[in-house]
Structures are given as C-alpha cells and as structure tokens.
Design brief:
Structural class: alpha+beta
Largest sheet: 5 strands, antiparallel
Shape: globular
Strand content: 5-15%
Helix content: 25-40%
Number of helices: 14
Strand order of the largest sheet: 1-3-2-4-5
Number of strands: 14
Order of helices and strands: HHEHHEEHHHHHEEHHHHEEEEEEEEHE
Length: 374
C-alpha cells in the first residue's frame, strides 16, 4: 500500500471531480434516501428544507415525500452534531455518532461557565432529560423549567448546557416537507425507543468521511467535524490508506477503492441549497470554491443557495412562486445556459412545491436569468 508521506499530486480539478463523485454530484445515484443520508454521514439541516434539496441534487427520482416519510417513521432525525449545527441523520447515526462530538459539546458549555455558577451540570442533565422525556418541550420551556431549579443562573447558559449535554432531537412535524411546527425537543433515545448503541470510533468515522468527502487532509476532517486531535486516528489508519498531496504540498489521505475520476469528467450543473455540506466540509475549499468567488455564497451570517457549473461554485439562485432565478457570477455560454435551464426545470418539477414555503404548488414560472451577481 502506498505511503502517504510522498504521494502523487492531485490538482484542483482532480480533487473537485473526486469529491463530486463521493458527493453523488457527477451523476444522480440510484440510491434510497436513507442510504444516501448514511453515505453522506448526515445532511446539514440548519434550515428545514435544505436536506430535501440536497437529496434532489444527488438522487435519481427523489421526491420530498421519501425523506418526509423517513422523518415521520423516525428512521431519520434532526439533531446537533458536527460543528454544533443541526444535521439530518439516520437513527443509527443519531445514537452512535453523537458520542464522537460529545467532548466538543461539553467544552462548548465551558464558554458559559460564568452564567452557571452553582449549577451542578450532572443534576442539570438529569433534570432536563426527565423534563423532555415526559413530553417534547420547546427550548423556552426547558429554560423556564431549569430556572425553577437555578433561579440565579443565566437563562441562556442553562439553555446551552441542556442542548450540549443531551442528544436532543427535533420531533416531527418539524422537519417534514409541507408541514410546519414549533421546534420541540426530546432525547434521541426516547424518540427512537432504544438506548444509544456502541459509539462509532474515530477510525470508523475517518473512513466514512473519506468515503463522502475525500481525498482529504486531517485539517479538512477536523473542519467538517468541528473537532481537534484527529491525527492519531489517521496515523492508525495510514497502512490502509493511499496518500496524495495537493498543489500546495498538503498531505491528503484517501480510501484505496474510492472513485477518483479523470479531471476532465463532465460535471453537470447542480442547484444546491444553503448550508450544503459540499461547501462546508474542508479547510481548503478551493476544490469547489474558486478563490475569485470566495465569500460570495454568504452575506453576513446568511448562506445563499448556490449553483455549480463545471463542478465549481458559479452563482446563486432563488425561487419564488415557481420562478427560479439564476444569478451567475460571470457570463455563461448558450450551451451552458441551456444545461442550467434544464436542471432548473427539473428542480421545479421534481420538488413540486415552492422552496420558500415547502407546500405551495410551484406553478410553471420556469427558469430565468437575473443580472450577473457582482
């Protein structure tokens, strides 16, 4: 097996195509939604609808009802995991992946220690668990309950402590396409009706990360997971991995049998939602985000919906009452414009509802091009 100390160089296009292949974005996969959520190690779900759009961009024949059904049958759930953000995970990952990031969540509580003076965190955890397992609760209700036990504590600090110390899931109908509901929380174990399983090991998750996001560096995975000290896991796995370098000489690891397509492999246009993990899961994002457009998928703390052309970030999009508006970062050829229109029409037809409301018929407004986005 090749050593990772002096591997071949993978240029930006090679990394782009390899990552797109792992992300099911070179061609829509004939895969079930639950298998895709497993393969991708969860879907970033900071907002309700992005997971549905993520799967539409990746799966052949996907319809929102498939993921909605998995939410309602409790085969997938929404909970805080990677980077302290909400993700949609399978039930198995909800029970076994959260422990991997628990130390990071415990450290997050430490940032609020000044507001938790005199609070016994173990007692707080037991109190909050009993309260949310008696019935799903809003965060405001959790906070008010904890204040009855620790009236002198900072209310926000109590909320953070409960969120971080417990594996809380958002119960349905929250997260179900076409429905709405206030965020109500209970524990993953209670909602899924079984105790947490044996935690996934760091080594196992490294292999899964590489399968979904590789080739990648240690720092890339640490960015995705919101963790540090992952190098020992990579070192243990080194004999089982192939080694490469990027154009800056950074060491990259990969699975021997993972796809690494020819850099000239065509990459069709894809419409991605805000907070798609493709754009968030590497320390060096140039494999997807060209340096000249860095930062243009965000305004302040708000992420925009993004357009990929030839595999790279190339514009933004919005949807309103069945009209999908594309705002490219630069002019595109007529041939590429036609491909973008075809993909946009597929999105409108396949999702079957307004992107803003998740339940209103999209209509037949079609795809239009706005001004080039400066």
């Amino acid at each position: 097996m090749a050593s990772t100390t002096a591997g071949p160089v993978l240029d930006t296009r090679a990394l782009n195509r390899a990552t797109l292949a792992r992300q099911l974005l070179l061609g829509r996969a004939r895969m079930s939604a639950v298998d895709a959520v497993t393969h991708l190690v969860g879907l970033q779900a900071q907002n309700v609808r992005p997971p549905y759009f993520q799967l539409h961009a990746r799966l052949a024949g996907f319809r929102p009802a498939e993921l909605a059904g998995l939410m309602e049958s409790r085969e997938v759930v929404r909970m805080v995991t990677m980077r302290s953000t909400l993700h949609t995970h399978t039930a198995h990952d909800a029970l076994t992946l959260r422990p991997l990031v628990q130390d990071a969540r415990d450290r997050e509580v430490g940032y609020f220690r000044a507001g938790l003076t005199g609070v016994d965190l173990d007692r707080l955890t037991r109190t909050a668990r009993a309260f949310v397992e008696a019935a799903p609760r809003t965060m405001a209700e959790i906070r008010e309950e904890l204040l009855t036990h620790w009236p002198d504590a900072d209310p926000r600090a109590l909320s953070v402590a409960a969120r971080c110390r417990l594996p809380l899931v958002q119960v349905t109908p929250r997260g179900v396409w076409g429905r709405s509901g206030q965020v109500r929380l209970t524990t993953a174990e209670h909602w899924l009706g079984r105790p947490a399983g044996e935690p996934q090991s760091p080594d196992e998750v490294v292999l899964r990360y590489l399968g979904a996001f590789g080739p990648a560096s240690v720092k890339d995975m640490q960015t995705w997971a919101g963790l540090t000290r992952l190098r020992p896991a990579f070192e243990r796995l080194r004999p089982r991995l192939l080694g490469f370098r990027d154009e800056n000489g950074v060491e990259l690891f990969d699975l021997p049998d993972a796809p690494r397509p020819d850099p000239d492999t065509p990459a069709p246009p894809r419409f991605l939602p805000e907070f798609d993990n493709l754009l968030l899961s590497h320390a060096d994002r140039t494999r997807v985000v060209p340096p000249q457009v860095k930062g243009r998928s965000w305004t302040g703390n708000q992420a925009h919906r993004t357009l990929l052309v030839d595999g790279f970030l190339a514009g933004l999009w919005t949807e309103d009452a069945g009209v999908l508006t594309v705002e490219p970062f630069s002019a595109v050829t007529k041939a590429v414009e036609a491909q973008i229109v075809a993909e946009g029409e597929r999105l409108l037809a396949g999702m079957g509802s307004d992107a803003r409301t998740g339940g209103t018929p999209a209509g037949r407004g079609g795809v239009r091009f706005g001004a080039i986005r400066d």
